[in-house]
Amino acid sequence: MSDLPALRRFYAEELRAVSDIRSDALVRAFATVPREHYLGRGPWQILAPSEPGRGRYRTTEDDDPRHLYHNVLVAIDAARWLNNGQPAALALWIGALDLRDGERVVHIGCGLGYYSAILAEVVGATGHVTALEIDPVLAARARRNLAHLPHVEVREADGASCDFGPADALFVNAGAAHVSPIWLDALRVDGRLLVPLTVARDAAGHGGGGMLKVTRRRDGWPARFVSDVSIFPCIGARDAALNERLKEAFQTRNWHAVASLRRDHHDPTETCWLHGGDVCLSTAPGE
């Protein structure tokens, strides 16, 4: 068996370098939380890139957890192309949330709970993580995996419609076609929302787009895209018409120009990157 503590420390430092992590607490979380606890016993299926198509899975030669401490996607359900996400991407996104000790975080689409545990480690025992998962099988496994953490609550629920209370940070870990007003309403002042706005490429809703960060201020909603993203769909936040409008926006307008989110009802203007009745992404400066 490998020296797992040393491997986790090296893995965490690699993520610090690759994802430019500025939070020591986040690096410590990746060095501390055992990924194998959440993914179950190996051997594991690792997603290897190939052309054409999404890629192919390879099976590790044994059940040594050393295989998990790389920047790799690991199958949760290979038949659905459902994976435990790529650590460097998740490190970048969690870092963008600027989490602080004692904060309340909502994690929508928690899967098996590994990244919920990372979030919980960052906010500490005085913080709280509500981990939501709509798939009943995954929710049950996440509940078992996270049972040892008293400041984590796992709920089987649709994160696009349920009431999960106020939050300092909200991380949607599945692709949406729009920003739900429910998520915005849940944010406290200075709260941060991170949501992947994605265009579906197939009937199942798999697709790509950009990871959007929105911050609630007393006098406005600054917003920006943090990175591009390819991710499993958020079942409750998909809509065919909105998908087409989002697709047009990504194809015809500069997504890096998005600077704010508007919630006031207004007629479309030249600053509207993605106009909607309840939520509009705008290139106008945020407050």
Please explain how this structure is put together.
With 287 residues, this protein is α/β, with parallel strands linked by helices. The protein is built from eight helices and 14 strands. It has helices spanning 4-19, 24-32, 35-39, 87-96, 114-123, 136-145, 181-186, 240-252; strands at residues 45-48, 56-59, 74-77, 82-84, 104-108, 128-133, 152-156, 167-172, 187-200, 207-215, 223-231, 260-262, 272-274, 280-282. The strands form four sheets. It has a seven-stranded mixed beta sheet with strand order 7-6-5-8-9-10-11. Strands 12-14-13 form a three-stranded antiparallel beta sheet. Strands 1-2 form a two-stranded antiparallel ribbon. Strand 10 (207-215) and strand 11 form a beta hairpin. Helix 2 (24-32) packs across helix 5 (114-123). The termini are far apart. The mean pLDDT is 91.
Tell me the layout of helices and strands:
Layout: H1 4-19, H2 24-32, H3 35-39, E1 45-48, E2 56-59, E3 74-77, E4 82-84, H4 87-96, E5 104-108, H5 114-123, E6 128-133, H6 136-145, E7 152-156, E8 167-172, H7 181-186, E9 187-200, E10 207-215, E11 223-231, H8 240-252, E12 260-262, E13 272-274, E14 280-282
Parallel strand pairs: 5-6, 5-8, 6-7, 8-9
Antiparallel strand pairs: 1-2, 3-4, 9-10, 10-11, 12-14, 13-14
Helix pairs in contact: 1-2, 1-4, 2-5
Provide a brief overview of the structure.
The protein has 287 residues and is α/β, with parallel strands linked by helices. It has helices spanning 4-19, 24-32, 35-39, 87-96, 114-123, 136-145, 181-186, 240-252; strands at 45-48, 56-59, 74-77, 82-84, 104-108, 128-133, 152-156, 167-172, 187-200, 207-215, 223-231, 260-262, 272-274, 280-282. 28% of the residues lie in helices and 27% in strands.
